[in-house]
Each structure stands twice: as structure tokens, then as C-alpha cells.
Design a protein that fits this description.
two-stranded antiparallel ribbon; mainly beta
């Protein structure tokens, strides 16, 4: 597995607050994600950049913390959310999938409570630039 890059990409949520995110752009980075982390500080997150619009289901295998997960289309508009997504403590075969019901290109993982705190809603636009 490859550890993700430094959190040097800035994401602006619809309420004007900003989040510093690590980018996960390769298959290896996306597979590793936030595995093994024991915390995700406020104002930090991970942005998964997929090559195109598709239904991307996520799971929490080897995650040790809960997350708020936000799926966005190629236009950066929120298409689906999974707040308070619990970590999976069992075998990989017992971990449920979350999301993946709507086509998306970007997936943002945030600390639990972020969706509620920032009043995120489907249809809102999240601002970011990916190099």
C-alpha cells in the first residue's frame, strides 16, 4: 500500500469553511485511504479523485475511526452523503458498503460530525482544484 500525499490541497465547503485534504488519486492511494488512522483532526480530510463519473461504493475496512463521507459529481456538486459512517472492526467479508448509489467522480472523507456542523446538503457545490 502507498501512504497518501501531504494535506496540501484546500477544499472550500458551501458554508465558506476550508478543509486541508490529502489527495488519493491512484488505485493504491484509494485502496489505502485513511486505514490505520486513530484520528482525523477538525479541518482535515481526504479527497478521492476518480478518473470519471461512476458509482463508487466505499467501505470502512481497517478504518479505526468513523467518518462523514460526501460524494460529488464532476461539477463538484454533492450527490450523496453518509454521515457518521462507522469503522468496520470485523473481517473484510463482513464490512458493509456505503454510498455508490449515484454516479460521482470525487469523494470527500471528513471527521464525523462535519456534515451536520457545516450543514452540507445534496446539490450544494464544494470548491477545490486538483492538479
Amino acid at each position: 500500500y502507498v501512504a497518501p500525499r501531504p494535506a496540501n490541497t484546500l477544499v472550500m465547503l458551501p458554508d465558506g469553511s476550508t478543509v486541508k485534504v490529502e489527495l488519493a488519486t491512484t488505485d493504491a492511494e484509494q485502496a489505502y485511504g485513511l486505514m490505520g488512522r486513530t484520528s482525523l483532526p477538525e479541518g482535515r480530510g481526504m479527497l478521492f479523485v476518480h478518473t470519471g463519473m461512476s458509482k463508487h461504493a466505499y467501505w470502512m475496512y481497517h478504518c479505526r475511526i468513523g467518518l462523514d463521507i460526501v460524494w460529488m459529481g464532476s461539477d463538484h456538486r454533492i450527490v450523496e452523503m453518509s454521515p457518521d459512517t462507522p469503522p468496520c472492526k470485523g473481517k473484510s467479508s463482513t464490512c458493509p458498503n456505503f454510498g455508490g448509489h449515484e454516479p460521482s467522480q470525487y469523494v470527500l472523507e471528513l471527521p464525523v460530525g462535519s456534515v451536520k456542523k457545516h450543514h452540507l446538503a445534496v446539490g450544494e457545490r464544494v470548491e477545490f482544484q486538483v492538479q
